[in-house]
Amino acid sequence: MAARVDLVINGRRVSATAGQTLLDAGLTGGRVIPHDCATGQCETCRVRIHSGTVDEAGTRIGDTVLACRARLTSEAAIEFDEVPDVVRRGGTVESLVELTPEIVEVTVALRKRLAYLPGQYVRVAFAGLPARDYSPTLRSDGSGELNELIFQIRRQDGGTVSSHLGGRIGPGSAVKVEGPFGHAFHRLGRGRLVIVSSGVGWAPAWAVARASRLREPARALLVVAGARDPHNLYMRPALDWLRERGAITILTCSGAHPPGDARPGRPTLHLPMLTADDIVVAAGRPEMVAAVQFLAAAAGATCYADPFYAADRTAAASNPADLNFIQRLLQRVSRNQKAKTESVA
Questions:
Q1: In contact, 101 and 231? CB cutoff 8 Å
Q2: At 252, is the secondary structure helix, strand, or coil?
Q3: Is the pLDDT confidence value at 115 over 80?
Q4: From 150's CA, which of 36, 166, 169, 341 has a CA 20 to 30 Å away?
């Protein structure tokens, strides 16, 4: 018979079974840990280990693990940030605006407001099509109503959903929304906030950056945003707004013939030296996000990640083994950083 152990979740003690995942232990004890995919991809269930030890299953970054993968081995205490409850809402498409030849801004009017934190994402089903995950954001001028959800969606060649933008998906189309999900949301803090995005990862990045400027205007803020194709650098007006309010902004372009106001190369190439006091938010292509996670872990910085997968952000990556390798690298860097700190103490 499996041993019984105690798990403390945000100060509340529940009885669990050794070998259970932290997520299952919480659910069994009536304490829901925020989660979505439960496969280790979406980062929604990342929790901090306050005390005790767990089988981290290769998911440790700093003092955090993924609750859907890490398993109880003995008594432990964990913490997570409180987020709005997951709800379902209905609405209609209000408008579509072509931001670039590939990227469309879609505004959805909800019948009832859906509360979320800047940087979280929701699951959206347009006109009976398969559900996809998108991050609510603001327009480039910062506008947006409480009962609106604004998305920036990149058309994919042959995409099951995105290819219908402007056709089956148009003003008046029915929409079903579920959420919010995600761990890479805005948190108040004192350390420098470093936001890194690629492509339409700018949607959550802009939401987090604007929230930071409005809620904590004196906080140091660095924003690196980029795209592969020059015509997809649609974030210029928003970067101008941030720069006028004291933020340091860097625009990058990794494709051929970058424009004069963009630095050549990927966003990670222009990321400044990170420190342990930095809070990093990364959103966009999985490869870019993983690289930022690695650099943050090497510096001992806290990093919140939101990787965008082509079809579904919670779907498995094309090569899960590569992600596991990256997780192992992050774990090794985290352990080396911890050992270095303890040796100095």
A1: yes
A2: strand
A3: yes
A4: 36
